[in-house]
Design brief:
Blueprint: H1 26-37, E1 40-45, E2 48-53, H2 56-64, H3 77-81, H4 95-108, H5 117-133, H6 138-155, H7 165-181, H8 206-228, H9 236-244, H10 249-270, H11 272-287, H12 289-302, H13 318-330, E3 347-348, E4 351-352, E5 356-360, H14 362-366, E6 384-385, E7 388-389, H15 396-400, H16 411-428, E8 429-432, E9 434-435, E10 441-442, E11 464-467, H17 470-475
Parallel strand pairs: 2-5
Antiparallel strand pairs: 1-2, 3-4, 6-7, 8-11, 9-10
Helix pairs in contact: 4-10, 5-6, 5-16, 6-7, 6-10, 6-11, 7-8, 8-10, 9-10, 11-13, 11-16
Length: 479
């Protein structure tokens, strides 16, 4: 191209930056590049252009302000190889995507999720009961609860057991799709001929995993189709089906397929993304006891000792909201997100962005010291002013859940779930580090940059979870 690209690491002839694209701990490398090359870093992998957007301004200028151009997704071979063309999150921008997106909006908009709050509260209380019985497995319990909530909402299916086949399959499918769709992860996306090479050939490791990945994705949709026929249970699927029941047969069949696809995507995307933020919450409470104390003081003042928090308390608990915002900012669940692509050639800041894969790197955006001073410190006060949520403070949600027309459509649901879960746990329990044999606290050694997948993952750690008081113990009878 006669128009230059944005700056980036110098590559090699033919392969470009293929050897530079990080396979392990991508966050570390992307952060280093953002320091050297600035807000927009260009990479060339076997002749294909990728840019990494490292500031809120760059992401906003392209993905929000020019969303008419940058709302497409890069075409990924994995979509067809896994039979996942029905997956809205990876779908090209166009009428099929728009149809699914409308259904998402109808059932998960800020207004639409209000009737689901009793279910979310009930599940948050179920989590309290599980923590009271067996606090050691707090990670597993919180994963079960986030999965069970979305499962019950979408299919009306009640899961009590972490080995419930619907839950297990969705969890496995999330892990697989993160590996399959992580931007820059699989060489076959840059060198399509690799799919025809024998499995000993370098770069074909994905082939061994394909059969397992494919069967997980098929099962995900089959569960949905089984339930699509079962309109007895109150659920989003049954509501969707009721609403199309009067359509002519062809249109009805089309809408039924949309309901099947949308419900499977809700099931796939809705659980572990939310769970990831709950894990961050536990970590922050272990490391920042003052924050925990302040949050509990607010709960004692507003909710009082005699009952558990409920959704209507939300407006009176600004500190709890600030804790949630800080969890989202401090350790973003989806560091690299889902790549965007331009649907037409474009030049931005006199640099060519035609046919370029765009990755918005939320970790750099949310740890930008010019926007969030002392970014590695967990400090909910950065979102407050005079004891209220500061509407002028930069909202981490904008970077954490995406930009423009592809912004996460499940964000209102997960925000409400996270709010009631965090408030309920803090109201009843105190969370502290475990103690070694000499009685000294053992702080988890969790590196904030050990992000290996779009959903942040980190090594398991322990903590002590105890009821705060006798009164709090009695509240558990309500769970
Ligand atoms: C804390 C929880 C969550 C986080 C951090 C999160 C994050 C994200 C991010 C970063 C994207 C990519 C946005 C972009 O391309 O710019 C996304 C897309 C998406 N999310 Fe979420 N999400 C969460 C919860 C949920 C829930 C609860 C659901 C569904 C019930 C959901 C469904 C989706 C779907 C379907 C897309 C694709 C949208 C499209 O391509 O048009 N997410 N999410």
């Amino acid at each position: 191209s006669a128009i230059p690209y944005h700056p980036g690491p110098k590559g090699w002839p033919l392969i470009g930056n293929a050897l530079d694209v990080p396979q392990v701990r991508p966050s570390e490398t992307y952060l280093e590049w953002s320091r050297i090359y600035g807000p927009v870093v260009h990479l060339n992998v076997f002749g294909k252009s990728m840019v990494v957007l490292n500031t809120a301004k760059a992401a906003h200028d392209l993905l929000d302000a020019r969303s008419a151009i940058y709302s497409d997704r890069p075409r990924m071979l994995m979509s067809s190889m896994l039979g996942m063309e029905w997956n809205m999150a990876m779908m090209p921008y166009g009428p099929t995507w728009r149809k699914q997106r409308r259904v998402f909006h109808k059932y998960l908009s800020e207004e639409a999720i209000k009737p689901y709050q009793p279910l979310q509260t009930q599940k948050a209380r179920k989590l309290l009961a599980l923590l009271a019985k067996d606090s050691k497995n707090f990670m597993e319990h919180s994963r079960l609860i986030t999965g069970a909530t979305i499962l019950e909402l979408v299919y009306g299916e009640c899961a009590e057991d972490p080995d419930h086949p619907y839950l297990k399959n969705a969890q496995d499918a999330v892990v697989s799709s993160l590996e399959a769709f992580l931007p820059g992860n699989l060489m076959v996306e840059f060198l399509p001929f690799l799919r025809y090479m024998p499995s000993w050939f370098p770069g074909t490791e994905f082939k061994k995993k394909l059969p397992k990945w494919r069967s997980q994705m098929i099962a995900l949709r089959e569960f949905a189709s089984n339930d699509v026929n079962d309109t007895e249970k109150p659920s989003l699927v049954s509501r969707m089906l009721e609403e199309i029941a009067d359509l002519e047969s062809q249109e009805c069949a089309e809408e039924e397929a949309v309901a099947q696809n949308v419900s499977a995507i809700m099931h796939l995307t809705g659980a572990d993304s939310t769970w990831s933020t709950i894990r961050t919450f536990f970590l922050a409470m272990i490391l920042y006891p003052d924050v925990q104390r302040k949050a509990q003081q607010e709960l004692d003042r507003v909710v009082g000792a005699g009952r558990l928090p409920a959704s209507p308390d939300s407006a009176s608990l600004p500190y709890i909201h600030a804790v949630l915002k800080e969890c989202i900012r401090w350790f973003p669940a989806s560091s690299l997100g889902v790549a965007h692509a331009p649907s037409e050639d474009d030049v931005w800041l006199v640099r060519d962005l035609s046919a370029t894969v765009l990755i918005r790197y939320s970790r750099a955006i949310l740890h930008d010291p010019s926007v969030y001073p002392q970014p590695y410190v967990f400090n909910p006060d950065r979102f407050l002013k005079n004891g209220k949520l500061n509407r002028d403070a930069p909202d981490p949600n904008s970077a954490a859940v995406g930009f423009g027309r592809r912004i996460c459509p499940g964000r209102h649901f997960s925000d409400a779930m996270l709010f009631i879960t965090i408030a309920s746990i803090l109201h009843v329990f105190s969370i502290s580090p475990t103690l070694d044999e000499r009685g000294s606290p053992v702080y988890p050694d969790v590196q904030l940059d050990s992000v290996v997948a779009p959903i942040s993952s980190y090594t398991p750690y322990d903590c002590i979870i105890k009821t705060r008081s006798r009164v709090a113990e009695q509240l558990l009878c309500e769970c």
